[in-house]
DNA sequence: GGCTCGTGCGATACAGTGTATCGAAAAATA
DNA sequence: TATTTTTCGATACACTGTATCGCACGAGCC
């Protein structure tokens, strides 16, 4: 289990094969089936284990609580990039996941939200946003790292490709936006969307 | 290509293997490498082809435009469930994807947003939300279908599992929420979060 | 204590996967 | 037409997740 985590952190999710994990423990391929029925189950255990790392939500207002939850998940995904790939992919009901939901709900209640429908609503909506935001940020981070390691490919393939596309004249607004808009970092976009979401909740809930 | 799409629609993304796609065309396994360098590239073509199906954004206000974009993507994911698995996973720069972004930006401008930074900001934030919302809704749909087909497993495994978990007394708030909160359908949660997001934008942008 | 029997374990086997290789066929050049 | 170059796809390879099943080991009985 910890072996699987370490392997995923070190070499990425696609390197996590039952053989390699078992090999890291000096065991045969089928050894893991004593603890797990299928590979999906191993992945779910890994996800649950990350939920177990998440810090207690903090903050006195519900907005601060939601912000701290969001940042906790984002930070975890930056530590374990594979977490982003698994997030939202299967329903997760592991003990640590349930405990994290419990802590989140309790923190919201402590911050003054007493209606369960409201609590669940804001938490579910935040979850939807987080799944996508974290996923896209990690994707972008990987892309940047790849083009950083190999800038030649970027300059010889992607850039001329975009130039050709723009030269067709089919994308005038997009071209203008790419040229004129200031480039926001992934972290900025994350904050931006989170801000919109929380502000919308605050007005909608009249809190 | 169309063969890959049909295969993914019919049997799911994991059934899309180069051999099966080529087989559907009465060709050898390597035949596809004439059109594609790697399997990832095939998947990217599939994603781009779905972007090509998306309807023109409609609406006279920017909020209506964003709503129509959101619904267009959601409907596409409901048609092609595998689309949700691929969304946000890799950077997509296909022609149809670019065209979709172009149409979205143009529609926003036509609806009165003239600042490129604002246009990009709301579109990126919406994108983050959509990736997660669509992904989770499809996941949930699959889970419901699976337990629908095989309700015995749900009743003999998941339900007692949750009951045991609650019986530990570690999740009092969660237990209360599960019992007392009204169950929202995936579509409702999608709308709820989208409403929060748009309302937040509207107040933040003072439009 | 010795012997049988049942059970659980994990090496081996299998049906797949994505893709590198390389001989042959086709196209282009002279 | 002869020769070179390019294109192409069948075969091979390394690897995946998991079903199978012979074997070793421990419990139960005489």
From TrEMBL, chains A, B:
DNA-binding region per UniProt: 17-36
Residue ranges of domain HTH tetR-type in the record: 1-54
Keywords recorded for this protein, A-Z: DNA-binding, Transcription, Transcription regulation
InterPro entries, per database record: Homeodomain-like_sf (IPR009057), HTH-type_TetR-like_transc_reg (IPR050109), HTH_TetR (IPR001647), Repressor_TetR_C (IPR004111), Tet_transcr_reg_TetR-rel_C_sf (IPR036271)
PROSITE patterns per record: HTH_TETR_2 (PS50977)
Keyword NADP applies: no
SUPFAM superfamilies: Homeodomain-like, Tetracyclin repressor-like, C-terminal domain
Pfam families named among the record's database cross-references: TetR_C_1
Entries under Gene3D superfamilies matching the protein: Homeodomain-like (1.10.10.60), Tetracycline Repressor, domain 2 (1.10.357.10)
Gene Ontology MF: a single term: transcription cis-regulatory region binding
A GO BP entry: negative regulation of DNA-templated transcription
Keyword presence, Cell wall biogenesis/degradation: no
Protein name, UniProt field: TetR family transcriptional regulator
């Amino acid at each position: 289990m910890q072996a699987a985590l370490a392997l995923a952190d070190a070499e990425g999710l696609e390197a996590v094969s039952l053989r390699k994990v078992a090999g890291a423990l000096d065991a045969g391929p089928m050894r893991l089936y004593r603890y797990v029925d299928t590979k999906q189950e191993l992945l779910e255990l890994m996800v649950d284990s990350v939920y177990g790392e998440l810090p207690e939500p903090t903050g006195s207002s519900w907005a601060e609580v939601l912000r701290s939850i969001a940042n906790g998940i984002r930070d975890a995904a930056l530590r374990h990039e594979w977490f982003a790939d698994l997030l939202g992919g299967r329903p997760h009901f592991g003990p640590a996941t349930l405990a994290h939901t419990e802590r989140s709900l309790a923190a919201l209640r402590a911050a003054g939200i007493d209606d369960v429908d409201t609590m669940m609503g804001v938490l579910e909506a935040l979850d939807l946003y987080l799944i996508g935001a974290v996923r896209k940020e990690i994707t972008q981070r990987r892309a940047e790292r790849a083009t950083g390691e190999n800038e030649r490919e970027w300059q010889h393939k992607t850039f001329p490709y975009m130039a050709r596309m723009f030269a067709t004249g089919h994308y005038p607004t997009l071209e203008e936006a790419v040229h004129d808009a200031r480039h926001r970092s992934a972290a900025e976009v994350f904050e931006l969307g989170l801000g919109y979401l929380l502000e919308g909740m605050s007005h909608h809930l009249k809190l």
